[in-house]
Amino acid sequence: MDSNDQPVARALTAYTEKKLSRRDFVRFTAALGVTSLGAAELLAGAAPARADEAKTGGKLIEGYDRTLSVLDPIKSTWADPGLVAIYEPVVVRNLDGVVVPYLATAFKPSETEWRLKVPAGRTFQSGAPLTAEAVQKALTLMVTPNVGQNAVFYTAVSGIDVDGDEVVIHLKSPRQGLGEVLATEYAAIPNVDKREQVGVGSFGSKEADGSGPFKLDEFVSGSHVRVARWDGYKGGADFFENKGAAHLDAVEWVPILEPSQRAPEIETGAVHCVKNPPAADVERLKSNQDLVVLEFPETSNFFLLPNMKRTDLGFDDLRVRRALSLAVDREGIVKAILRGGAEVTNGPASSGWRYFEPEVKKFNNYDPAAAAALLDEAGWKLNGDTREKNGVKLAFIAINLTDVIENQVMAAIADMFAELGIKMQVTSLEGAAFREQRPKADLFGYKWLWSVPADVIPFFIRGYQPNDQPEAKEALDAFKEWEGARSDEELQKASSKAQLVVAEKLPIIPIYTPNTVWAHNKKVHGWRPNRFNLYPFYNDVWLDS
User: Fold this and answer.
1) Which of 217, 367, 486, 526 satisfies CB 3.0 to 4.6 Å to 228 for a cystine?
2) What is the pLDDT of residues 335-392, one digit of tens each?
3) Cα–Cα distance between 59 and 54 in angstroms, integer?
4) Which tens digit of pLDDT belongs to each residue from 88-131?
């Protein structure tokens, strides 16, 4: 045991008993070598929902930072936290990011198949039997193109069938990384017979049927989503403190779309927990003795994608893309616009990813002089205040999805480009219009949010760059090695290679990863957001009053 473990444990006890403030706890543990992030994680788990302490009853109200989507894991437009309360995936990432059994009591991967053992005696919330056949039906829909929301991530799957109490996923090629996809919210298992009965579009809003600890109680678009405890729940992953029926009577998510309202909502007690208060309010929340704040890099990345089909603008020329990247003062953006609540990304994934490659940090650092030299070398000479080549001005229209912070980021990047003679006009579009315009945009800015970067990054390269373009092809080939990895070691090696290729060859230009910030009242126990899952799990949660 580390010699520092006992002092930290004593400090945690003092903090839990309100004899030590949060600020003093962080200072004390820092002296022992604990990072601020580590201290925050310790604080977040300071009062786990132990069976001999937990109280039953009450409704947890959580402030959410987005509009609420229909809770259908096969076809939802966004993976919202209600999915992790109503449904269970077959496997899940534990608090260390390791894929472990969840609905399936065991799994056995090989180069040709994955076997998932489905427990006997389980049912869906409706009472319908939860059998291997039921799981096979759900997974089959998920992997079917134009049916499953994320079918594109299952291209290695050749078929799914049942062998006794096991679901067998057959593979065209080795896919060690399949567990990462099976652990996502979009791989949670619904009762597809009930889904067909209720109807696609209504399932997940009017009715839902999963095997998780909570049942859908009420879905009011734009207002709230509420789930109620399912007393028949018999599940729980190994790292859950509570296995069986939840402690809480209910959980309710309310959208707080105006960022400035999130901190006041938890400070006044209108909500017990809140996601992503603005960076300007975080220090104030941390100083509040009644609150716990947890902050870590989100599994996301805001990036620019210059369309390499625009050869007239030189976007197919690596020197031009490097110039664009070197022209961006990422540190300045994080400091001035994100108020420090983000990390610079020199490569396509954040440091919060289990397979992050730190060597990417040598690429894409702010250097406007080097950017200007690259543009000169590529033939884009400064004429007045604009770069030109063969009579063509380096001027283009960029689009981004309307968002207060991202609008500011794009405007700042446009100013940085202008200093080099690059004219970028930015148009912010709402969701449907943005998706329609994205394939034909000169350049777009976008933030993906997904817990498996190695699956989503090639999606954007493949979908929006010419696949025969050498640098795009090199990046896609590197990600194919991830897809075909046979072991965790091969996953790490392939992900490192892919990240370095993208950082150097820039089929996309990474900019920053915002922090996820979760704040909760100290009356809330067992609520443990973590960097490896999009949302906390709710079965362990209980309230003091």
Assistant:
1) 217
2) 999 999 999 999 999 998 989 999 999 999 999 999 999 999 999 999 999 999 999 9
3) 14
4) 999 999 988 899 999 999 999 999 999 999 999 999 999 999 99
Alpha-helical (H) ranges within 76-131 are 82-86
Task: Assign residue 284 a region (left: φ > 0; alpha: ψ between -120 and 50; beta: otherwise).
Answer: alpha
pLDDT-based confidence at residue 35 (cuts at 50, 70, 90): low
- In 188-282, DSSP assigns E strands to 214-220, 224-229, 250-255, 273-275
CATH 3.40.30.10 fits 300-515, yes or no: no
**Two domains, one topology: 59-215+229-243 and 300-515:** no
Is the whole-model pTM more than 0.90?
Answer: no
Percentages (nearest 5) of helix, strand, coil residues in the chain: 35, 25, 45
Contacts of 353 (CB under 8 A, 6+ apart): 299, 453, 495
Please give the structure tokens belonging to residue 493: 């090696």
Q: Where are the domains of the chain?
A: 1-34, 59-215+229-243, 300-515
Token pair listed for 392: 């063509």
Q: Which of 8-22, 73-87, 415-429, 473-487 has the lowest mean pLDDT?
A: 8-22
Rounded to an integer, what distance in angstroms lies between the CA atom of residue 86 and that of residue 209?
A: 7
Give the type of residue at 304.
Answer: L
Q: What are phi and psi of 101, to 5 degrees?
A: -65, 150
Please write the tens of the pLDDT for every residue from 283-328: 999 999 999 999 999 889 999 999 999 999 999 999 999 999 999 9
Chain centroid offset of residue 178 CA: 17
CATH H superfamily, domain 59-215+229-243: Dipeptide-binding Protein; Domain 1 (3.90.76.10)
186/183 Cα distance (integer angstroms): 8
Distance CA 432, CA 401 (A): 9
* Helices and strands in the chain, H and E counts: 17, 23
